[in-house]
Amino acid sequence: MKKIMITVALIFTATIAQAQKNLYEAIEANGETATYEGFSGISINDDGTIGIVRGKPTVTIIVTKLAAGQPVGFEATPVSENYGSFGMSEISDYGRVDSYPNVMTIKNTHKRGLDGYMVIDDMLFEISYIPSNGIPKVEDVTAVYVMVKDRTGEKDDSGKKKGGFLGRMKAKLEFSGQSPTYKYIQTVNIKKIFNEYVTAMKAKQASPKTSKDRTDIARIKRAREAGDEEIKRYNDSIKATPEYKDLKKRIKQNEVNYQASKSKNTVTLRNNSSSAIYVGTDGSDNPGTRISAGGTASWDCGRDGYLQRITKSGGSNAYSSTKTKVYRSNSGCGSTININ
């Protein structure tokens, strides 16, 4: 009986490993028109969820390939901003994947770098340090890009549908005037998802390479030695096709739809004072939305906004909402409210 139980456990573990998508498969499964909202200043809470300090530009992400079709990297392009692009390629001097074809991470192998990226389903992680002979750690995640989509009916880690009473209470306590994607990512046990994925992918990478895998690896090495001319030829040929031009049109339309949807649910708060301010929800003791002097920030138009008081507690900043209301719920959706 013991032997049978061990065999069943091994089969179950192998099944989970095989079900995991590698970095390139995950990006392609999401589609080239998918947009990803970025968040940085990441910290890991005790319950495995993440704390977020600031946002990053929304991007689209595509896989870059050789002319023969082998994936060699990815490119992230801002949807509406003129900054915030990033990516990595094996055709570069220092970009390398940890294994092929079961790619878990792609990183900068320069001695001063070792930073890189990992993709789990609809989330791309920016990681500050990936050891040469080890595994990435969730504590080294510095930013996460989350696919923007309707998540109604999705289940949390306990198997219960999101949006139940406890979930709504948690969102109410933690929410600080940001997007639905922001609210979603703060309810996810990132630590659990991250660690389970790393374990499953390391098991998948232990599978022997096929003759096709070895041929593809050799082709990538030759392309690297020849420089990036081959990948440029491939990209140029793709961009010349009617399909690619249609794709660009759809991406542009998706951005129009995204901005229209966003304007219905958010209000822009403008800080006309000479110093930065924080705006939080009623009674909140968590850091709210920071608005720099003369700057703006988005706020959920369905929630009241209050100025926050910043004090010192043990050498660190402490935040608490005052009774000074700067925005009344549902009074300015899609518009700009001045805070003087």
Explain the overall architecture.
- Keywords: Signal.
- Residues 1-19 form the signal peptide.
- 32% of the residues lie in helices and 30% in strands.
- The longest helix has 24 residues, at 242-265.
- The protein is globular and about 70 Å long.
- The strands form 4 sheets. A 9-stranded antiparallel beta sheet has the order 6-5-4-1-11-10-9-8-7, with helices on both faces. The chain has a 4-stranded antiparallel beta sheet with strand order 14-13-16-17, with no helix packed on it.
- With 340 residues, it is α+β, with helices and mostly antiparallel strands.
Oligomer: single chain
By DSSP (H or I, 4+ residues per run), the number of helices equals 8
> What's the domain count?
2
N-to-C span: 74 Å
- Order of strands across the main sheet: 6-5-4-1-11-10-9-8-7
In terms of per-residue confidence, which ranges show pLDDT below 50 for 5 or more consecutive residues?
A: 1-18, 163-176
Major sheet details: 9 strands, antiparallel
Envelope shape: globular
What structural category do the secondary elements indicate?
A: alpha+beta
What is the string of SSEs from the N terminus onward? HHEEEEEEEEEEEHHHHHHEEEEEEE
How much is the radius of gyration in Å?
23 Å
- Fraction of residues in H or I helices: 25-40%
Mean pLDDT: 83
Number of strands: 18
Tell me the strand percentage band: 25-35%
What's the layout of helices and strands?
Blueprint: H1 2-19, H2 23-30, E1 35-40, E2 43-44, E3 50-51, E4 54-65, E5 71-78, E6 86-89, E7 95-97, E8 105-108, E9 116-120, E10 123-127, E11 141-147, H3 165-174, H4 180-185, H5 190-205, H6 211-225, H7 229-239, H8 242-265, E12 266-271, E13 277-280, E14 289-291, E15 296-300, E16 305-313, E17 316-327, E18 336-339
Parallel strand pairs: 12-18
Antiparallel strand pairs: 1-4, 1-11, 2-3, 4-5, 5-6, 7-8, 8-9, 9-10, 10-11, 12-15, 13-14, 13-16, 16-17
Helix pairs in contact: 1-5
